[in-house]
Design a protein that fits this description.
This protein folds into 4 domains: 58 residues, Nucleic acid-binding proteins (OB fold (Dihydrolipoamide Acetyltransferase, E2P), Beta Barrel), CATH 2.40.50.140; 60 residues, OB fold (Dihydrolipoamide Acetyltransferase, E2P); 68 residues, Nucleic acid-binding proteins (OB fold (Dihydrolipoamide Acetyltransferase, E2P), Beta Barrel); 67 residues, Winged helix-like DNA-binding domain superfamily/Winged helix DNA-binding domain (Arc Repressor Mutant, subunit A). The chain has 3 helices and 18 strands. The strands form 4 sheets. The chain has a 5-stranded antiparallel β-sheet with strand order 3-2-1-4-5, with no helix packed on it. The longest helix is centred in the C-terminal third of the chain and has 18 residues. The radius of gyration is 27 Å and the shape is elongated. The mean pLDDT is 90.
């Protein structure tokens, strides 16, 4: 059986001016056309060719030797080419764009958006994309605490945080308490694994280990002090949300950073705020 949405080795059973007709070995009753523009030169009857099977704009099953970014059941990040009446159309390198129906979208899309999708065959035997990929993501990444990973932000929960597909295939999350800089759905991020849950899901942070991050945080505070004329109305007792808004730091990170600056003799810490030490 020739399978839609997958790569498979098919045998050349007929040659025409339009291209090559291919079939499963031992079953020449069902054939599919590989257009001449994609057919290997000097192909002969009986040769095996690895092709991807899809449907063209006339809804005919057709073969291609092109490399597509996703096959049925797999995951990939694709760009929205346009949004139409029945859904969004994604660029996947073929003449016929891939349909992402509205019912398979998890958020409103616009041209140029990047989306994490999986490929499936719908009830009408059409290849379609879905953004409902949570259950398709794996939990056996093999990553450990403090590993640096790359992932795609594919969803968010205002209470929990951001959902990330590490390597576009492993379940991960940036907890809300770790979000100190603006991150949007559709962003590709580099993060540190802060824990691996018992179920294998990864918790991530955009920040480095505290003893490394403290130098960066200290520089942020110094730059803001210099830009403000040498004084900022923030101290150990400042509201955590105000610290987050101003410095994009947690209160603990802020306290570690100003403690470092104080020990180095660069600032003074008073009840009304912090000041640069004049030299």
């Amino acid at each position: 059986m020739i399978e839609l949405g997958k790569y498979q080795m098919l045998e050349v059973v007929k040659k025409t001016k339009f291209g090559l007709y291919l079939a499963k070995q031992g079953n020449a009753k069902t054939t599919v056309l590989l257009p001449s523009k994609e057919a290997p030169e000097n192909a002969s009857i009986g040769d095996l060719i690895n092709v991807f099977i899809y449907k063209d704009s006339m809804d005919r099953i057709i073969a291609t030797t092109k490399q597509v970014p996703v096959t049925v059941g797999e995951l990939a990040v694709l760009k929205v080419k346009e949004v139409g009446k029945i859904g969004a159309f994604l660029d996947w390198g073929l003449a016929k764009d891939l349909l992402l129906p509205y019912k398979e979208q998890t958020r409103k899309l616009k041209e140029g958006d990047s989306v994490l999708i999986s490929l499936y065959v719908d009830k009408s035997e059409r290849l379609c994309a879905t953004m409902k990929v949570y259950d398709l993501l794996s939990t056996d990444s093999g990553y450990k605490k403090d590993d640096i990973v790359t992932g795609f932000v594919y969803d968010k929960n205002d209470t929990l945080g951001l959902f990330v597909a590490v390597d576009n295939k492993y379940l991960a999350m940036i907890p809300k308490k770790e979000l100190y800089t603006p991150i949007n759905i559709g962003d590709t991020i580099t993060a540190r694994v802060i824990s691996v849950r018992e179920d294998g899901k990864l918790n991530l942070s955009l920040r480095d280990k505290a003893y490394i991050q403290i130098s960066t945080d200290s520089e942020i505070i110094l730059d803001k002090l210099k830009a403000s004329g040498g004084f900022l109305p923030f101290s150990d007792s400042s509201n955590p949300e105000e610290i987050k808004d101003e410095f994009k730091l947690s209160k603990n990170a802020f306290k570690r950073a100003i403690g470092k600056l104080y020990k180095e003799g660069l600032i003074t810490i008073n009840d009304d705020g912090i000041r640069l030490v004049k030299k």
